[in-house]
Amino acid sequence: MQARTVLALPGLLLALSYAASSHAASACGTAPSGELRAERVASVKPSRTEAGLYEGPVWIKDALYFSDFSLGPGFPSRIRKLAADGTVTTVVEDSGSNGLAVDAHGDLVAATHKYKALSRYAMADGKRTTLAGEYNGQVFDSPNDIAIAKDGTIYFTDPDFQKAAAPGGQPVTGVYRVGTDGKITLVDGSRPNPNGVALSPAGDVLYVNAGDGFLRAHPIVNGVPGQGKDIVKGLDIPDGMAVDCHGNIYVTEHPARRVRVFSPQGKELATIRTDANVTNAAFGGADGKTLFLTGAGAVWQIRLDVTGSPY
Hints:
Elements: E1 29-30, E2 34-37, E3 39-40, E4 52-60, E5 63-70, E6 77-83, E7 88-92, E8 97-102, E9 108-112, E10 117-121, E11 128-132, E12 146-148, E13 154-158, E14 174-178, E15 184-188, E16 197-199, E17 205-209, E18 215-221, E19 224-225, E20 229-232, E21 238-243, E22 249-253, E23 258-262, E24 268-273, E25 278-284, E26 290-295, E27 299-303, E28 305-306
Parallel strand pairs: 2-24
Antiparallel strand pairs: 1-28, 3-27, 4-5, 5-6, 6-7, 8-9, 9-10, 10-11, 12-13, 13-14, 14-15, 16-17, 17-18, 18-19, 18-20, 21-22, 22-23, 23-24, 25-26, 26-27
Protein name: SMP-30/gluconolactonase/LRE family protein
Organism: Massilia orientalis
């Protein structure tokens, strides 16, 4: 596979405007506390006969987009759309995707295990282009989750969960940075299967969880992540994450069927339960205060009094 890198990435990520420093904390709402439960979205039904997962929720304009992939050979995946009226359609039939995000143009950025690359899917026609295809002359293992900074810098995790989808891979499971100049660097290659990745509202902290059960915070100085500090330990197979406008981190714990909410300092604030394994989280809805969760054959939602990141 020939390496392709993007020459320039978009600037301000419009979907993250919730983080503007001019907004007073009081306008942000109140973070959840205690024990809560999310409810299934009834109109989202399994579209496959074989076992699979829903992943990578992202809210764009007035709809939720998510990956629907099978656990069968090659991990075939499609991108589906949940409209505000509950209608579910397929927007990209063969995306090969896991985690999703949205760029400044409103296009989908996808972690694609099929291509072992970071990809962009144009919303207008579904055409795919490669944003990051190789590191040190080798394809990635199976790109999983994505965070995009305000200046267009992209961070993504690369565990080996879907490594068998295509030949090749990396010698380590890593966290990568794709600069606005297209340069790809390894942020951390020391952890087993890094998974969820997210940025603080100010863009000055990169959060990453992994198979070691730690939530690690990397300070970002002059656009470069530094050495991380573990702020939460003992997570039960953590998966995707979201961040609210206060900077609290919503960590999905896959087999525990829950989302735990932590302050930026690592203090546990709330638990949101689901009735099946959960994979990822995103804020959306008309006012940005609905938390959507994806998982094993289901999409859940819960109304909160706080806004947050759209993926």
